Each structure stands twice: as structure tokens, then as C-alpha cells.
Amino acid sequence: MSVPTWAHRVLANARPVFRQLTVIVLVFEVGIVLMVMPWGKYWEENYFLLSQPSLLAIASNPFLRGAVSGLGLVNVCAGLAELWRLVRALGPGPLPPDFDSSSLSQSPADLDDPVHAPHRLSD
Questions:
Q1: What is the three-state SS of the chain?
Q2: What residues does each domain of the chain span?
Q3: Could you read off the pLDDT of 11-52 as tens digits, one per residue?
Q4: Which residue, among 11, 15, 2, 1, has the nearest Cα to 116 in the 3D structure?
């Protein structure tokens, strides 16, 4: 059975792909928290705002809440853009010019040989 070309790309780049997916998940998660947190109950009822009542008036301003939510939206969009770039880089067809192809020098035959395949998923 023949393995598709994109599978060889994923196997050859397992560690960098895992690292990129971790960053994507982190950026996306921070974005969701920043979008939701200003509108929740915890935003106004935390230690820092209760200890400084003058900050409560600033933190409860809807413009500040919207700005923080906007930063969250930027993070979500950045995470989706990175995910799109990663999917395009690993998908079928030619690699995009901005993708680091230095670790793709292994041939598909080398990936089947466990001695010459240092970037396997089982590492």
C-alpha cells in the first residue's frame, strides 16, 4: 500500500509540526480567554480591582472591555492563519515558499527504515 506524500511530510516533520500545533493552540486559547473574560463576572470581582477602587471605574468601561476583546479576536485570527499555513504546508501539492523545507530532504524510502528516520512519531 502506498502512503500519500503528505503523510511522509508529516512523519518527516513530526516534532516541528507538534511544536507549531502547540503554539497555535496556545494563541487560540489566549484569544478566546481575552474575548470572553472582560464580559464575565470575574472581570470586576478580583483581588486587584477590589483593593484599588479607582481602577474599578476604568475596568468597567465598555470601551476598555471592547479593546481587550478586540485583542482576543486578533489572537484568534492569528491562530487560524497559522493553522491555515500549516495545513497548506503539509497538504498535497507544492510547498509554499515560506515553509522551511530543510528537514524534508529524506526520501520516502528512508522514512520506512527505522534506522534512518529520526523524526518518527514514536520518539
A1: CCCCHHHHHHHHCHHHHHHHHHHHHHHHHHHHHHHHHHHCHHHCCCHHHHHCHHHHHHHCCHHHHHHHHHHHHHHHHHHHHHHHHHHHHHCCCCCCCCCCCHHHCCCHHHHHCCCCCCCCCCC
A2: 17-90
A3: 666 777 788 899 999 999 999 999 999 998 888 888 888 888
A4: 11
Cβ neighbours around 38 below 10 Å, total: 22
- Residue position matching grid coordinates 514514536: 122
Q: Is this prediction's pTM over 0.90?
A: no
Q: Model confidence at 116, in pLDDT bands (50, 70, 90)?
A: very low
Give residue for cell 464575565. Answer: 40
Answer whether 12's CB lies under 8 Å from 112's CB.
no
